């Protein structure tokens, strides 16, 4: 097995289903990866994550660099053993934190110096160190270090940032040690500017990566603008390799991106929503703080077969949320992740059957009928 083996199984328009084979198992695509930033998917056990249908999770280089430290994780047998997750792991390089922690970092050509948000200690993250950390963690899929620019950045700033990210990508590729069943993904940047996205894609494809991600989206640009960027960028990426849209996660966003040829997704939305009393159901989203649920003996979603819906009522979940009981976020997160995996399974089935247009029409009708479910 050389690097990552990606097989496209079926197509429906630009959408496709496939199988991405890593050293820790296969990922059926399109795939949604739960976010396990600090070596844990919040409020979930690894077994519970697997029971939702998730095959691959995401962990974060920056946060694990701060604690417990990549060298310590390596000494303890690597991230898979450390967190008891036997399946594939993709690690974000820390590029998102270049954006989200802008007030705590200084950046130059060599890399980024972070002031820890935990204790103020200084950490240096260069492209080479980002690749080294991900190797110590034992990531199946390693991401290049990049800079994610803010939405309000002007074209000149975005162009400068994108070209820096491309130079960092080249250094990451030079530092990366190829191993069977592991891969290195490049990240297309360029903000909402299609010509800059095209330049970035062409540069990365020329370097040759095992897969290609689109970063710097879902930062406030709106769905229409995001889809416009995808329409102009996805066709420039190699059709035979996996495509990953980073940090995108509303159900309608996933559907629209799959239609445009995206294979992989991650987002904190299902688990973060679970921790704040929100539940995704067919037709919309429920706010479990709403008093309308307090006497409701029914499940969150009649069509869902997750343990939460099979065993607990809306009334009980409302009680847990209002009482701030830990079980509330656990059960809601479990349901939300199950909902997302059901959605991805439905999308794969629709593509395999050549029925994606019919699925989209039914999905939109369901969302419209649901309205604000409360």
Q: What value does the Rg take, in angstroms?
A: 20 Å
Number of domains: 2
Task: Specify the helix fraction band.
Answer: 40-55%
Tally of strands: 16
CATH-defined superfamily of the largest domain: Queuine tRNA-ribosyltransferase-like
Strand order of the largest sheet: 4-14-13-12-11-10-6-5
Any idea of the CATH class of the largest domain?
Answer: Alpha Beta
Q: Give average pLDDT, whole number.
A: 95
Strand content: 15-25%
| First-residue to last-residue Cα separation | 49 Å
Structure notes:
It is globular, with a radius of gyration of 20 Å. The mean pLDDT is 95. It folds into two domains: 5-267, Queuine tRNA-ribosyltransferase-like (TIM Barrel, Alpha-Beta Barrel); 274-370, no CATH class. The chain has helices at 46-51, 61-66, 70-75, 79-83, 95-100, 127-137, 155-175, 194-207, 223-233, 251-259, 269-275, 307-311, 314-322, 327-352, 356-370; strands at residues 5-12, 15-22, 25-29, 31-34, 57-60, 89-92, 105-107, 112-115, 122-125, 141-143, 183-188, 211-214, 243-245, 264-267, 278-281, 284-287. It starts with a strand and ends with a helix. By secondary structure, it is of the alpha/beta class. The longest helix is centred in the last third of the chain and has 26 residues, at 327-352.
């Amino acid at each position: 097995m050389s690097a990552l083996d990606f097989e496209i199984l079926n197509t429906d328009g630009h959408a496709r289903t496939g199988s991405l084979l890593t050293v820790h198992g296969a990922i059926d695509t399109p795939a949604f990866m739960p976010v396990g930033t600090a070596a844990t998917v919040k409020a979930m056990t690894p077994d519970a994550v697997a029971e939702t249908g998730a095959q691959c999770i995401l962990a974060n280089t920056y946060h694990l660099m701060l604690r417990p430290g990549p060298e310590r994780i390596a000494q303890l047998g690597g991230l898979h053993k450390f967190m008891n997750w036997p399946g594939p792991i993709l690690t974000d390089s820390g590029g998102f934190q270049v954006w989200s922690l802008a007030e705590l970092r200084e950046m130059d050509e060599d890399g980024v110096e972070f002031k820890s948000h935990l204790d103020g200690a200084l950490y240096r993250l260069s492209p080479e160190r980002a690749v080294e950390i991900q190797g110590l963690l034992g990531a199946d899929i390693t991401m290049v270090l990049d800079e994610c620019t803010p939405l309000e950045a002007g074209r000149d700033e975005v162009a400068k940032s994108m070209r820096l990210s491309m130079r960092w990508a080249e250094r990451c590729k030079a530092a990366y040690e190829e191993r069977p069943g592991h891969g290195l993904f490049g990240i297309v940047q360029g903000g909402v500017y299609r010509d800059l996205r095209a330049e970035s894609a062409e540069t990365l494809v020329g370097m040759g990566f095992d897969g290609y991600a689109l970063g710097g989206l879902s930062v406030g640009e709106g769905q229409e603008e995001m889809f416009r960027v995808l329409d102009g960028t996805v066709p420039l990426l190699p059709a035979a390799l996996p495509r990953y849209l980073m940090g995108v996660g509303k159900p309608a966003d996933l559907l629209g991106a799959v239609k445009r040829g995206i294979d992989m997704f991650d987002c904190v939305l299902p688990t973060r929503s679970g921790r704040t009393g929100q539940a995704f159901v067919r037709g919309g989203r429920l706010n479990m703080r709403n008093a309308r649920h307090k006497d409701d003996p029914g499940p969150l979603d009649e069509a869902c077969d997750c343990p939460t819906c099979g065993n607990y009522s809306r009334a009980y979940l409302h009680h847990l949320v209002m009482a701030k009981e830990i079980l509330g976020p656990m059960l809601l997160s479990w349901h939300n992740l199950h909902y997302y995996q059901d959605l991805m399974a439905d999308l794969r089935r629709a593509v395999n059957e050549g029925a994606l247009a019919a699925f989209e029409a039914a999905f939109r009708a369901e969302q419209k009928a649901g309205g604000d479910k409360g």
